[in-house]
Specification:
Helix content: 25-40%
Largest sheet: 5 strands, antiparallel
Distance between the termini: 37 Å
Strand order of the largest sheet: 9-8-7-10-11
Low-confidence stretches: none
Strand content: 15-25%
Mean pLDDT: 92
Radius of gyration: 20 Å
Structural class: alpha+beta
Number of domains: 3
Shape: globular
Number of strands: 11
Length: 290
């Protein structure tokens, strides 16, 4: 994006390991209209954390990159599949446990009350199906009526959104993120919100810690990764503990922070994964040309 001043970004940690593998890197805003994408061998989507408000424009830029000689990573197919959180329903059908979710297209208080009854929980999370940075994400307590109908109507009228029960484990334990580069596990972290908040992003005061994931979490993550319908250079899979298992919150495949700062080996892991992934992409292109 044009300006990352309000965000915490670690992509610069890739520069040295990429240079050691003889790759020269450039950071470019997706909004830069003067770029000739044919000048590059590969374009890696990284920290485009304003795309959700300009989705059509963002996809148009990615389509332009995809039609150039550069290889887009992750692919345009992945972006189209992952940009709307309805992909979670598809993964659930394939046996991936997700946070219980009701999908809606138009806001009404009745929809919230119905969800509360279905979940047997008056504490709800409501958020857009296309979103990032916890934008327009609300925690509601229907018993307390501590929410403003006007704000919710403004955010969700004629807009796809999702309703979920609030997961107490987010507060009690935190949210787990596991990182895979070219399908190979790299590292994992635990994100916990600040006091009196539920958002785990650093920009909202969340705290981060490197962890070694327990076996069940790793198995769940690998199962979910195998159900993603396209090959990925990078995947960040987010989970919360739920009913003695781990439920997926999101599969971040477009522009996730990869927290290279929390694992010393992760920038090199990524760089080496990139080389292998790029070579496979080239082979496929060469075969299709023939």
């Amino acid at each position: 994006m044009d300006n990352l001043d309000d965000f915490v970004c670690y992509d610069s940690l890739l520069e040295i390991p990429m240079a050691h593998l003889d790759w020269k890197t450039h950071e470019i805003s997706w909004r830069n209209k003067d770029i000739n994408w044919n000048d590059f061998d590969a374009v890696i989507i990284r920290s485009c954390w304003d795309y959700q408000d300009h989705c059509d424009e963002f996809l148009t830029v990615l389509d332009r990159i995809n039609k150039s000689s550069a290889i887009l990573m992750n692919s345009l197919d992945i972006v189209h599949w992952n940009i709307n959180k309805l992909y979670l329903a598809e993964l659930e059908k394939q046996g991936v446990p997700i946070v219980p979710t009701i999908w809606e297209n138009n806001y009404s208080e009745k929809a919230l009350q119905s969800a509360s009854e279905i979940f047997n929980n008056s504490n709800l999370i409501i958020k857009p199906c296309i979103s990032a940075n916890a934008d327009d994400t609300y925690r509601l307590n229907l018993k307390g009526k501590n929410f403003e109908q006007a704000n919710l109507k403004a955010s969700f009228t004629e807009r796809e959104f999702m309703i979920q029960p609030f997961m107490p484990a987010i507060i009690d334990e935190g949210e787990f993120s596991l990182f895979f580069f070219n399908n190979q596990y790299s590292h994992a972290i635990l994100k916990t919100p600040k006091s009196d908040d539920f958002r785990v992003q650093e920009e909202h005061g969340g705290q981060l810690a490197s962890i070694i994931p327990e076996d069940k979490l790793m198995q769940t993550a690998k199962h979910a990764l195998n159900k993603i319908p396209y090959a990925t250079l990078y995947a960040r899979l987010d989970f919360v503990r739920h009913n003695d298992e781990f439920a997926m919150m999101e599969a971040e495949l477009i522009e996730p922070s990869l927290y290279f700062n929390l694992d010393k080996k992760s920038p090199e892991n990524f760089a080496r994964a990139f080389i292998s992934f790029y070579e496979v992409c080239l082979q496929k292109i060469n075969k299709s040309d023939k």
